Amino acid sequence: MTTAQHRPFETLTGDFFGYENQLDEAERAIVMRVREFLRTEVEPIANEQWSRGEFPHRLIDGFARLDIAGLPYDGLAAHRGSRLLTGFLALEICRADPSVNTFYGVHSGLAMGSIQRCGSAEQRDRWLPHMARMTKIGAFALTEPHGGSDVAGGLETTARRDGDRWILNGHKKWIGNATFADLVVVWARDEADHHVKGFVVDKGTPGFVPHKIEGKIALRAVENADILLQDCVVPEENRLQNANTFRDTSDVLRLTRGGVAWGSVGCMMAAYELALVYAREREQFGRPIAKFQLVQDHLATMAGHVTSSLALVTGLARLQDAGINQDEHSALAKSVVTTRMRETVALAREVFGGNGILLENDVARYFADAEALYSYEGTREINQLIVGRSITGMSAFV
């Protein structure tokens, strides 16, 4: 029996201050329903899918029945979700499997968020109901081989208007879900005005060629793709009508970056909970290692990181629900939380000793996956500079 099978279900051991109690009764019911699905359907297969480097497509129908993909958006789910609720859902899913949470975040956050914020009313009606039911899966293609942190100024993928259609050419990298997505939001620079615009590319469009990235050491169950765009024709009706500059792209990233922070809390919380169970059960020198002072120091440090990070993302959710969240707020949360996560998963693996490198003990997966969460949607350094610009009034990017 692995340590994951001992993990608590009804309450979160890692929520030391009880932040989950801030959810109302209806929201908590949604969280508990999702938690049960993750416990019974996701956790038992997480290590196998990670080891094989394959996404568990059979889970999509189950996620669809949870009716959570449309929670942040009006009229798409039975219950319009607060940012506190959607944050706790990201925490829950990442606590079960960071790879599955990345799939969900790309679809529900980046792809649906792009259409919600940058699409016309007709485009929202055309795509979002299908995406909320998860009968169409989305992806988000922004990052490029030469454009990661500098993608705003260095975006190389081009879009050229030709009558009532656009011709896309370029190369995208690290695009989650893109090997199987039904539609991909592709960001490209308009050759005419040099501004970044968004386009929805349907699966099977000629000139759109995704290749699965192999050899990853983190988020192995996420099917990231390199995408080659060669004279890819997209109709004008598929151009996101309200995506006219990179500022519009940034509006999407501002919200989803907060979601990464929430997921990172889930990742470190899982590692902490696993270490706590192991420390109580593992005996050395005739007693459980949880009785040793240095092990308790590790556990208390982890508990502090999880608790303070949960406080930070809860505050961020309140700003988002009030409509006053700014780039620097999301950036600070992402930077601080992922840094604490990195230390927490390392301490958790250390509590396991040599057993911590065995996939069967689960903590190794969180230890590896944390590296991807630490880097994507803005590295620590980039997010620190966003915060620094805000508090000093001076940019240090160049």
UniProtKB/TrEMBL annotation:
<feature type="domain" description="Acyl-CoA dehydrogenase/oxidase N-terminal">
    <location>
        <begin position="25"/>
        <end position="134"/>
    </location>
</feature>
<keyword id="KW-0285">Flavoprotein</keyword>
<dbReference type="InterPro" id="IPR036250">
    <property type="entry name" value="AcylCo_DH-like_C"/>
</dbReference>
<dbReference type="GO" id="GO:0006635">
    <property type="term" value="P:fatty acid beta-oxidation"/>
</dbReference>
<keyword id="KW-0274">FAD</keyword>
<feature type="domain" description="Acyl-CoA dehydrogenase/oxidase C-terminal">
    <location>
        <begin position="251"/>
        <end position="391"/>
    </location>
</feature>
<comment type="similarity">
    <text>Belongs to the acyl-CoA dehydrogenase family.</text>
</comment>
<dbReference type="InterPro" id="IPR009075">
    <property type="entry name" value="AcylCo_DH/oxidase_C"/>
</dbReference>
<dbReference type="InterPro" id="IPR009100">
    <property type="entry name" value="AcylCoA_DH/oxidase_NM_dom_sf"/>
</dbReference>
<dbReference type="GO" id="GO:0050660">
    <property type="term" value="F:flavin adenine dinucleotide binding"/>
</dbReference>
<dbReference type="Pfam" id="PF02770">
    <property type="entry name" value="Acyl-CoA_dh_M"/>
</dbReference>
<dbReference type="Pfam" id="PF00441">
    <property type="entry name" value="Acyl-CoA_dh_1"/>
</dbReference>
<feature type="domain" description="Acyl-CoA oxidase/dehydrogenase middle">
    <location>
        <begin position="139"/>
        <end position="232"/>
    </location>
</feature>
<keyword id="KW-0560">Oxidoreductase</keyword>
<dbReference type="Pfam" id="PF02771">
    <property type="entry name" value="Acyl-CoA_dh_N"/>
</dbReference>
<dbReference type="GO" id="GO:0004361">
    <property type="term" value="F:glutaryl-CoA dehydrogenase activity"/>
</dbReference>
<dbReference type="InterPro" id="IPR046373">
    <property type="entry name" value="Acyl-CoA_Oxase/DH_mid-dom_sf"/>
</dbReference>
<dbReference type="InterPro" id="IPR006091">
    <property type="entry name" value="Acyl-CoA_Oxase/DH_mid-dom"/>
</dbReference>
<dbReference type="InterPro" id="IPR006089">
    <property type="entry name" value="Acyl-CoA_DH_CS"/>
</dbReference>
<dbReference type="InterPro" id="IPR037069">
    <property type="entry name" value="AcylCoA_DH/ox_N_sf"/>
</dbReference>
<protein>
    <submittedName>
        <fullName>Glutaryl-CoA dehydrogenase</fullName>
        <ecNumber>1.3.8.6</ecNumber>
    </submittedName>
</protein>
<dbReference type="InterPro" id="IPR013786">
    <property type="entry name" value="AcylCoA_DH/ox_N"/>
</dbReference>
<dbReference type="InterPro" id="IPR045008">
    <property type="entry name" value="ACX4-like"/>
</dbReference>
